[in-house]
Amino acid sequence: MKISFFEGGDVTATFPSRAIIGRPIRPYRRGVENDILGGVCGGLAIRLGVKERTVRVVFSLLALLSGVGLMLYMLIWLTLPRAGEEQSIATQLVGKRRKLRHILLGLLVIAAIAWFLASLGVPNLGVFTWPLWLSLLAAFGVWKGASPDERRHLEELLKAAPLIGRAASRDKRNFWLRVALGAILVFFGLRILRHFGGAWGFAAPALFGTLVLLVGVLILLAPWWLTTLDDLSGERRARMRVEERANVAAHLHDSVLQTLTLIERSAGDEAAVTRLARNQERELRVWLFDPDRAEAGTATTYGSLLRDLQGEIENDYGVTIELVTVGDCDADERIIALVAAAREAVINAAQWSNAPTVALYGEVGTDSIELFVRDLGRGFDVEAVPSDRRGIALSIDQRMQLHGGTATIKSIIGAGTEVQLTLPRTP
Amino acid sequence: MAQPRVFLVDDHELIRSGIRSELAGSVDIVGEADEVEAAIELISERLPDVVLLDVHMPNGGGLAVLRALNGTCPSVRFLALSVSDASEDVIGIIRAGARGYVTKNISGPDLLDSIYRVAAGDAVFSPRLAGFVLDAFSLEGKTLEAGDVDPDLDLLTPRERQVLRLIARGYSYRDIATELEISTKTVESHVSSVLRKLQLSNRHQLTHWASERHLN
């Protein structure tokens, strides 16, 4: 993000290389633009005018020492409003009874787990672990009470976390990365345990205890976790439905209703009604079946170029173009030339053949791209066209040859004409 | 050939009356239905030769009718009639047993021709349907693995492909016969065999095609 470095100056610097100095003192708020987790460090860095990294290192060190840093972080996260927001998460939680009840319940559960572990005789429940428990509770509170905006940020964070978010991914690299990381951690964990207790004598019960703890926490917290997720997705689904509906309604109003009005007004003019109806039909089809094209605004593939061509000719010449496409590919300069050549052939058919419909068939094969323009009109003698009137045939031919393609025209007088255009996929 | 006994299934009264007046005198209309349940009941009771079946209706649409009657009345043949252009819908209804697909803006004589064709046991492929089928059987994006493909079932023969491409290019069966120097009957048998492959094949290619389009 770019910000103005000096008041009134036009010098810009890339944030966050350095926090801003010399600004009027702002209230301490959790950072939004420079946050990693909750923006606690980022906000503090802005407030104190020091480098964020410094603040982060201090917090990390504090966290390593008995977890006080972690607890501090979580507490600030809970009680400090986010930049641009009125209330802190804690205030929000107090304001909402239901969520507060959840938190109290969470407190009870954590106390119960602590008691359970203590009664099992698992050591180290003293001064070194209670910050961790409180942090866990605070994290729960943050998840429950976060504003929608922050909630979104947290979800993205979860999704982006390489080992959590992609847990379901079948990506092989991800799998091996996890296995390797897990193995290293297990190895070091065992080493540390052995260092303290010697061999398996201490490690085995501790491992067992940890396992019991993990399973217990999972069993206790799973329903909440699931309902939270469920609430969330339900909410999101409802929102999406509403948006979808509004979109459809807007589209129907903008296009279909307008066209229907136009059709009513020109009820006497058969050609105009047909044209309007065909136009609307095409537009609706693109909207329904080719959303990419509808979104992009301009044609970017072979198929959509042909559909545009169909629309243009139907509008201008009042004939029906039966368009069929098989396969599709991105449109490059050569394909644009191919469609331009086809355009001349189609216009020719629409103008001179007297046939009410023209069949247009485009196929993308493995080796070549083909296009057929066929009408059942009056046809002409290909050989007998005087050379000065061979403009169309010539220009189609030249366009194709220029890009390494070929054009073939077959015509039978009284039975129709077919133009075949072929373009190899590689020039 | 006696007039085929035709049954109409469409939830729009306007469409039904339009078709009725277009077909009047040329076929024997033995009944109509405007919803899935009634259609299933009446068709299995009256056993018409050809059912003109709307693809999009509430409660499952034409697909539900086809699935309910599939196998129970083998003498009844279905011709799908729709405005829908989504290839999934069209291929889906053909795979469920319809013998053809025409769009509702088809002209009266063409519709009549299609009905007679279906009544005679042939398949009716419009250019658009031919395009969809070629797409579905397309060789592109195919990842072949050994033992994955039953070649008899999953691949179109070059001749069948040729016929389909000519249909897609707007050729009538007779034009195709002339172009390929074969008889119209042979063209019809090629088309029927494509239809059979489409209905029987549930393997590789169609699965691939379907999954690409989030079908099934």
Cα(first) to Cα(last) distance of chain B is 40 Å
Please tell me the total number of domains of chain B: 2
Rg for CA atoms of chain A: 35 Å
What is the alpha-carbon Rg of chain B in Å? 17 Å
- pLDDT < 50 stretches of chain B: 139-153
Structural class of chain A: alpha+beta
Averaged pLDDT of chain A: 74
What spatial order of strands do you see in the largest sheet of chain A? 3-4-5-7-6
Assembly state here? Answer: heterodimer
Taking the alpha carbons of the first and last residues of chain A, their distance comes to 44 Å
CATH topology of the largest domain in chain B: Rossmann fold
Record field, number of beta strands of chain B: 6
List low-pLDDT spans of chain A.
Answer: 1-25, 162-169
Helix content of chain A: 55-70%
How much strand content do the residues of chain B show?
A: 5-15%
Largest sheet of chain B: 6 strands, parallel
Helix tally of chain A? 14
Number of strands of chain A: 7
